[in-house]
Recover the amino acids of this structure.
């Protein structure tokens, strides 16, 4: 075997000393070498699930690391949130869901197995409004007609994606602001709640727009308004609640990625950077448009401020309406 000159061997050892040891040489900064789990705390098929699967596929390519999605629905997102809160804080377990787990649930549930302070944001990914839709059998063509019927004492039942969901909050806002008689009926996710409207189990629902629109186009659900500040790009003919004569009843949903609070900053920054790059990809942006979502991409202090402001707003609304979950 030929001898390696001493000066060459010394240079090689010096180079090797600068390299990370073991598997970490192939691992993104701040992340351990095993799979990253996106926990979606709502059922498969909804907007948060689609976002989780789209981002996991993109991050798996960009970070060269395995990403998997696990659905843990139930209790308005609390079951999945509890799992993430109790997970190892190393950046490999990420809650990907909606803001209400942190901005609504702490004020309406008497007992939670976690606190908002147990988490910190990786990103506020996107935002959206909801669609106020009714079964055509109700005969309502406008939001004004619906409100007038509710004010006259006609008992109305509206489905939501679960107690504490954005649709539940929207129903309570409408009741408080208009004096309507309307009962919120919780279902286990957006899809079952839409099916309840189709089957006339309820009069209508305030639900995620993408799940409602195919049935609106088919004439099986009547669209009365959207709760966003601007009209939906997918249904520009449907007025906003403000345009329908009910200012102040806007309702938004934030789609967020959160990790346990003790997660190292390096891991959070690696995930945030990869998500930022993913949101810049044309196919991801189109997927958000197809879901009627507006890309946000807020990280760090900006994400914390957005969530804090929304929580303060909802706390005032919840205290005013007496909204609670047993």
């Amino acid at each position: 075997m030929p001898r390696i000159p001493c000066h060459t061997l010394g240079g090689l050892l010096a180079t090797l000393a600068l390299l990370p040891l073991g598997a970490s040489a192939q691992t993104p900064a701040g992340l351990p070498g095993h799979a990253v789990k996106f926990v979606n705390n709502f059922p498969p098929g909804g907007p948060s699930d689609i976002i989780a699967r789209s981002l996991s596929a993109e991050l798996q390519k960009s970070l060269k690391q395995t990403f998997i999605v696990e659905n843990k629905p139930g209790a308005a997102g609390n079951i999945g949130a509890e799992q993430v809160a109790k997970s190892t804080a190393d950046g490999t377990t990420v809650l990907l869901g909606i803001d209400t787990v942190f901005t609504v649930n702490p004020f309406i549930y008497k007992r939670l197995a976690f606190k908002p302070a147990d988490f910190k944001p990786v990103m506020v990914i996107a935002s959206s409004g909801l669609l106020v839709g009714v079964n055509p059998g109700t005969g309502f063509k406008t939001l004004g007609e619906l409100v007038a019927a509710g004010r006259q004492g006609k008992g109305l039942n509206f489905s939501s994606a679960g107690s504490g969901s954005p649709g539940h909050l929207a129903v309570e806002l409408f009741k408080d602001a208009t004096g309507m008689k309307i009962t919120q009926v919780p279902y286990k996710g957006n899809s079952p709640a839409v099916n309840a409207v189709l089957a006339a189990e309820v009069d209508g629902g305030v639900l995620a727009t993408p799940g409602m629109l195919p049935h609106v186009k088919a004439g099986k659900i009547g669209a009365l308004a959207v709760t966003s500040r601007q009209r939906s790009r997918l249904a520009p003919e449907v007025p906003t609640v403000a345009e329908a004569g009910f200012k102040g009843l806007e309702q938004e949903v934030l789609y967020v990625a959160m990790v346990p609070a003790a997660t190292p900053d390096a891991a959070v920054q690696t995930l945030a950077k990869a998500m930022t790059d993913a949101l810049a990809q044309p196919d991801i942006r189109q997927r958000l448009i197809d879901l009627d979502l507006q890309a946000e991409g807020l990280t760090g202090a900006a994400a914390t401020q957005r969530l804090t402001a929304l929580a303060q707003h909802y706390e005032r609304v919840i205290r005013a309406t007496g909204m609670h979950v047993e």
In short: The first helix runs from residue 6 to 17. The chain has two domains: 32-127+254-321, 130-226.
